[in-house]
Amino acid sequence: MDAAEFRRRGKEMVDHVADYLEKIEERPVYPDVEPGYLRSLIPTEAPVEPDSYEDIMKDVERVIMPGITHWHSPNFFAYFPAASSYPAMLADMLCSAIGCIGFSWGTASEATLVSLLAARCKAIRRVQLLDPKKSEAEILSKLVAYTSEQAHSSVERAALIGAVMMKKVPTDSLYAVRGEMLKKILEEDKAAGLIPFYFCATLGTTPSCAFDHIADLGPLCNQENMWMHIDAAYAGSAFICPEFRPLLNGVEYADSFNFNPHKWMLINFDCSAMWVKKRTDIIGAFKMEPLYLKHENQESGLVTDYRHWQIPLGRRFRSLKMWFVFRMYGLQGLQAHIRKQVGLAKEFESLVRADKRFEICAPVVMGLVCFRLKGTNELNQSLLKKITKSREIHLVPCQLSGSFVLRLAICSRSTEFRHIQQAWQHITQLAFELLQEHHH
Amino acid sequence: MDAAEFRRRGKEMVDHVADYLEKIEERPVYPDVEPGYLRSLIPTEAPVEPDSYEDIMKDVERVIMPGITHWHSPNFFAYFPAASSYPAMLADMLCSAIGCIGFSWGTASEATLVSLLAARCKAIRRVQLLDPKKSEAEILSKLVAYTSEQAHSSVERAALIGAVMMKKVPTDSLYAVRGEMLKKILEEDKAAGLIPFYFCATLGTTPSCAFDHIADLGPLCNQENMWMHIDAAYAGSAFICPEFRPLLNGVEYADSFNFNPHKWMLINFDCSAMWVKKRTDIIGAFKMEPLYLKHENQESGLVTDYRHWQIPLGRRFRSLKMWFVFRMYGLQGLQAHIRKQVGLAKEFESLVRADKRFEICAPVVMGLVCFRLKGTNELNQSLLKKITKSREIHLVPCQLSGSFVLRLAICSRSTEFRHIQQAWQHITQLAFELLQEHHH
């Protein structure tokens, strides 16, 4: 394919993309295929002679689309949003063309891991300074990291990778960690000879969008020489709205902070932004300088070598799409997007509260509603099974205080009030059928 | 921006991308800006009101392009190639539109880390089975990983992250590790009570594209219960050509293997492929199953949950661009690409060998030529400085047996013989000037 053909095919692809997104609602949001369906539809080997472009594009619809979960369908309410916007897509086109390899952006999981590794390195150095006879292995075996019992699975995984102990801190009735809860565990662990070194706070937990009390937790961590990392993967985007800023009080005590613009800021996956209070802490943890990566400015302080901030060496040119989106939407446009989606969640909350058969299970602060049928976990599992089976909308569950709970997250940029209404009608219809069956 | 505007702007962008790539040779390959140049060209805050698209596109040229290193210029010979092709770009457009979040592909650095963590987990379990009284911390402090002294910096970094010791194995005169070299160190380390558990072999090292002798190393690793990972980040793509397959002999002993199609297989960054002999080894090392990630098929064996294979939870839909490229080029087209680039490297080698002032420093097996002026390291450093300063071509150096060596890698898809000739003329002209200065 030469440049001339790319000009023709590229323009067709632009129309194809616009058609796909304009008509996405007509597609079933969730695929109706069995695992392995793809195997019989594609050859076992790559073609020796080139295929035609027409055949490939036909196969996109025939082979690929049946297996796709349409994350940008207005009927998609699962997990958290995966951002997308036309300007970001334009930027990605340019980004593909430039194709340069940047050498701190990974994902929130990586940000957590990187902060934990930096904290581990700092803690070992601190203890060895006080007691130079202690071996690294001995210190490592005493280090303890902490996080909320509601924190994302990637936090526990970071501790596993870093070969350090991790303890879960219990939460209050709103699923948030408070200072006194962490303090109690710290006292016990220090008395047992352990060395607390890291706390990962969450602003906007995955199950219920709870906010840990960082204004209490921060001073405690600072006093105990513990690194405080804040994982605000989803909720972080909302802090561009002044009305949500109070939830960020205490951020000044944090050593590092991360959020994912690819979740809720209209920038397509992947794009995750990390701040570090003292960048030498991060860089010191795993800096490597082979000759082929040396450059003139590395000791000048003028250049930030993000390769020391992440696990991979290379990174994509993600700032380009962020820049397009900031400029095409403006702060007002981005705020309007956040507020609209929070508003839709509140509308859904009202619909649930008006139905006595249902209950709301956690405060609705942002774009996530946790709800369930009053009754057993089995009943709610059956309801979710019906919802999943019908393929009209897509939801995932969570566990809150032992209860099986349904999570409705406002995800798609194109979700409107009518989609919320339709979703609720659909859920109540299935609930009605389910309760009827139970009566018989 | 609505779908209608996206249709218009998208088509403009397609032309913009084609123009950029057709005229890329006219741009200086390496930027002539000082670090921080961007700061004064952009506002300190995101705009409150949207900017116009026209202004943004003007700024791409005014603000962004002056700072870009043009990785796809035929004058770019640094590092290793960053893949790009028109079909991959088309796929990336569609990929952006679908914007689904896959939950095993990261980069080669990540593949190395993941294999090391899996090996660490396996080794700890194995030792504890034989001696249940040994604590995890005690075992961890005795584990040793090994790699070539020529291996990529990311290998050493993986050991640092995994909190295990790593030792560098010396290489032969061709910069490759041989079985007997590893064997010697293993005997010493075992006698000292250490536990060897992991060896990272390289096929195509970054400095000189050397190939470790995996046919000797593999049986040794298997016999010693050590995990053998193969990092073939660059050279791996060449194994689609039968004439390069003998370099892969011994791969059957490996526990894991990785290469980067985004280096040399025309698939734009990022795209890295990893194979694992026994996938339960990888999955067992850090599997996490929160309720919101559970799905019907997870225990059926029909689905490969790649999220257990990588550090981040999400991954981009990278297989799409691989699929476009395989189909649009066919195996023949991809082989022709590899062979053409190896041929260009051989042409450059001939030019260097014909000039008595220069020497070739390592065998030219693939698309990389290591060469230098006969003389001191200072002389070669001065030559590279002149090359970098002239901005006509872009090279990076490496260190081989204490010598400062220049690396010319065939990178761009559009590099032709005339670019090689021009590059050599340019280098010899600068060398002539340099040697004249030295005489005075």
TrEMBL record, chains A, B:
- Please, one GO biological process term? amino acid metabolic process
Q: Which residues carry this modification: N6-(pyridoxal phosphate)lysine?
A: K263
Q: Has UniProt tagged this entry with the keyword Lyase?
A: yes
| EC identifiers of the protein | 4.1.1.28
What GO molecular-function term can you cite, just one? Answer: aromatic-L-amino-acid decarboxylase activity
* Pathway of action: Catecholamine biosynthesis; dopamine biosynthesis; dopamine from L-tyrosine: step 2/2
Could you tell me the superkingdom of the organism this chain comes from? Eukaryota
* Cofactor(s) it depends on: pyridoxal 5'-phosphate
Keywords for this protein: Catecholamine biosynthesis, Decarboxylase, Lyase, Pyridoxal phosphate
Q: Gene Ontology cellular component? A: cytoplasm
Q: What is any Pfam family matched here?
A: Pyridoxal_deC
SUPFAM superfamilies referenced in this protein's UniProt entry, alphabetically: PLP-dependent transferases
InterPro entries, per the entry: Aromatic_deC (IPR010977), PyrdxlP-dep_de-COase (IPR002129), PyrdxlP-dep_Trfase (IPR015424), PyrdxlP-dep_Trfase_major (IPR015421), PyrdxlP-dep_Trfase_small (IPR015422), Pyridoxal-P_BS (IPR021115)
Task: Outline the subunit composition.
Answer: Homodimer.
Q: Which PANTHER family match?
A: AROMATIC-L-AMINO-ACID DECARBOXYLASE, GROUP II PYRIDOXAL-5-PHOSPHATE DECARBOXYLASE
Say which family it is in: Belongs to the group II decarboxylase family.
* Protein's name according to its UniProt entry: Aromatic-L-amino-acid decarboxylase
